Amino acid sequence: AQRVTQPEKLLSVFKGAPVELKCNYSYSGSPELFWYVQYSRQRLQLLLRHISRESIKGFTADLNKGETSFHLKKPFAQEEDSAMYYCALSGGATNKLIFGTGTLLAVQP
Amino acid sequence: EPEVTQTPSHQVTQMGQEVILRCVPISNHLYFYWYRQILGQKVEFLVSFYNNEISEKSEIFDDQFSVERPDGSNFTLKIRSTKLEDSAMYFCASSGTGPYNEQFFGPGTRLTVL
Fold first, then answer.
1. Best mutation site among B6, B55, B61, B100 for testing chain A: the one with the most A CBs within 10 Å?
2. What spatial distance separates the first Cα and last Cα of chain B, rounded to whole Å?
3. Within 13 A of B49's CA, how many CA atoms are on the CB side?
4. Secondary structure element (H or E) that encloses residue A4, with its range
5. Which of A5, A33, B9, B28 has the maximum number of C-beta atoms within 10 A of its C-beta?
6. How far is residue B47's CA from residue A104's CA, in Å, rounded to a whole number?
7. Which residues, 6 or more positions from B33, have their beta carbon under 8 angstroms from its beta carbon?
């Protein structure tokens, strides 16, 4: 079965602290993994994808096929990082997205 | 920068009524999607649409649902006879050609069925 698991509903950290948002997936083939972010009152937007191996707004994510994980990391959290973060996978001919339940990141001043 | 737009932003309807949710995808995109998010739950895939036909649909997308691209710019989701459990945020998305293309999301329509 295709599934994305984000175990934490809420992650609260202080500004400047490291952040790790966990994501595990289950997929029989070779999926494409994404992190989407939704800031308050804004639409879902792509943060990063594993295939591009880039860092966006200081965030990185490495695909670990052995552990079937795609955790999102940032060494020093900023208040403007506060948002809902969704891990998603895409696979198959239509590239539909399968989302996790999301993690609300709250960065305290 | 081009964006996906959706109307209305909020729709309230009585159970059993038909609703049509409208989306205008980004103009040169070819793949279109509907997703929904029931309050407190995950975003779920409903249907994908390419070349004027449904390319994939989920178990949620039963006979009560239909999609259409009536005029080359709009992409609509119709729910024939709404149920209470259809209350959710409905998101439209579109993407360009090729594999692994980014899906751009609209702001969503909040559907409330009374």
1. B100
2. 37
3. 25
4. strand A3-5
5. A33
6. 27
7. A96, A97, B45, B46, B47, B48, B49, B92, B93, B94, B95, B103
Read off the DSSP letter of residue A79: G
Asked whether residue A45 carries a pLDDT value surpassing 90, the answer given is yes
Contacts of B4 in chain A (CB under 8 A): 43
Range from A41-50, A100-109, B32-41, B98-107 carrying the lowest mean pLDDT: B98-107
The rounded radius of gyration (Å) of the Cα atoms in chain B is 13
Give per-residue pLDDT as tens, B33-62.
Answer: 999 999 989 999 999 999 889 999 999 999
Instruction: Please say if the pLDDT value at position B15 is more than 90.
Output: yes
Pairing relation of β-strands A19-21 and A72-74?
Answer: antiparallel
Q: Are A51 and B100 in contact (CB under 8 A)?
A: yes
- What's the token pair of residue A12? 């609260």
For A69, half-sphere exposure in the C-beta direction (CA atoms, 13 angstrom radius) is 11
Q: Which residues of A touch B33 (CB under 8 A)?
A: 96-97
